Amino acid sequence: MRLISRRSADALTDLWLAGPATLAMLVLIFIPVAIVAMLSFTDYQFGARSFNWIGFDNYLVLITDPQARRAITNTILYAAIVIPFSILFGLLVALGLHGLMQYAPRLSAILRAAYFLPVAATLVAMAVVWQMMLHPNLGLVNQMLGAAGIRGPAWLSDRGLVLYTLAVIGVWQTVGYNMVLFLAGLAAIPQHLYDAAEVDGADRGWERFWTVTWPMLGPTTLFVTVVTATGAFRVFETVATLTRGGPAFASDVLVYAIYREGFVYFKAGYSSAITMVFFAFVLLFTVVKFRFMEKRVHYR
Amino acid sequence: MRTGVFLRRAIALSLLLFGAALVLTPFFWMLSLSFKSQAEIFTPHLKLFPEALRWENYVAAFERSTLLRFLFNGFVVCAGILFFQVMFALPCAYALAQRNFRARSLIFGLVLAGLLVPFHVTAIPIFLGLAELRLLNTYSALIIPFVASVFGIFLFRQAIAAMPGELFEAARVDGLSETAIAWRIAFPLAMPAATAFAIFSVVAHWNDLFWPLIAITDSSLAPPPRGILYFRDEESGTDVGPLMAAAVVVVAPMIVGFLLAQRRFIQGLAVGGLKG
Q1: What is the ipTM of this complex?
Q2: Partners of B179 in beta bridges
Q3: Chain A residues within 8 A of B178 when measuring between CB atoms
Q4: With CB atoms counted within 10 Å of each terminal CB, which end of chain B scores lower, N or C?
Q5: What range defines the domain where residue B77 resides?
Q6: Which domains does chain A have, with CATH numbers?
Q7: DSSP assignment of A241-273
Q8: Number of domains within chain B
């Protein structure tokens, strides 16, 4: 009667439902990862007809060449500034807004929206605005400093300063995101813990924070840290818009180096090696995040 | 004691207001410049507000660049990506959540592993593949690389797995095909997850610069962020007013969307943190 058995009909249904997505995942994610890993051991150039296996040479250049190494050290320095400040300000704003919510909920909601605005805004467009604000003579920042009698520096073309300027923009952009996560964490702390702490004599704001709020925010803080770290390691838009890694590689970072070496200079093999280094960093953070998420689910 | 509370609140509130003012400064300055005349912008004296609300810069931005075209490109790319992402992800997520088959845990393993891979890692091979297929400099080049969203599969799977299995059993008894069950029963019920995912996806791709910078050189295909850089580099920094007007226009859709649906927006972008 039936042309095909029940079992093979079921198998065909599964193939029809899950097959396209699985194929797309393989073609667009897993095969490319394998190829990029392979290319990182070659001297392949876009457009070339052949390539040579050169072992770890690309990686050696990346680690030993002082100019190339800047992409790695700059990214780490950038992250080392953005991570703590973005988390600290995110937490402080969240604590402030959480308190404000109890006696002025409307105002608290308005301020929350204000702090979150940079997260939703198109970063490239906002970076162009930052460029205007940071203009050495006509920019808002230096005009304000000038009004106070201070001669402002060239924020984006001073080699010693440019990475810090970009980090400030990075913090500006991510504080709102961390604030939102901390607000969710704060809302989840049960009131009875504060009542209990008060009975135990922890009735001052400071003591309440250290005995209840901070420990209860532990999982949130870890999650926020990992998300901020991964975001910081991916910094690209501001660099591409404002400095193109310059001046003299002073603001070169990993993702921008991937773009420049691969798609401006067509050194696909070398760019693949940078990609793998970038991937290793991101993987490290993400593995930490997943391990911690499993734990949290487990303890619930 | 009461004055203590009052003082603490006053200090906290002024710090919060000061911080918010700092955060909003670039937005304020963008708007202010976009309404200023050339002479007002290049004056050596600091002027916070424009003399009048002039719309000339906005007119100039639309006339002198293909700003409208950039917005249209952004719309096509975001809509195309989201459409295919859902087309691929939803049936797969339904199968993973509510059906039993041999490859199920393997495929779900692939989804979880895929979450670890940032797009940047796959850029070089995907570029090679698109070049081989002669698809660079097309809308396809901007859409195809993102159609397999492991994050979408993951979110939909979590949502559908939380639905009672009896619901789907009943639909099967009624003679609905599995495809129909996935689209007509699971999909509507997974709307909250779909909304969060849609916001995450649209915001991410509307704002993306990395891939458009690589995949297209034809400015008539540029999505807004790429477009605004074309505009800036052509005008070489002399026409600040129209450039700022263009920035306002590019930023506006996301900001307006956010202000209209704050809770959903925050939700959508917050779940994005799960992605590597």
Answers
A1: 0.89
A2: none
A3: 13, 16-17
A4: N
A5: 61-274
A6: 59-299 (1.10.3720.10)
A7: HHTTT-STTTT--HHHHHHIIIIIS--HHHHHH
A8: 2
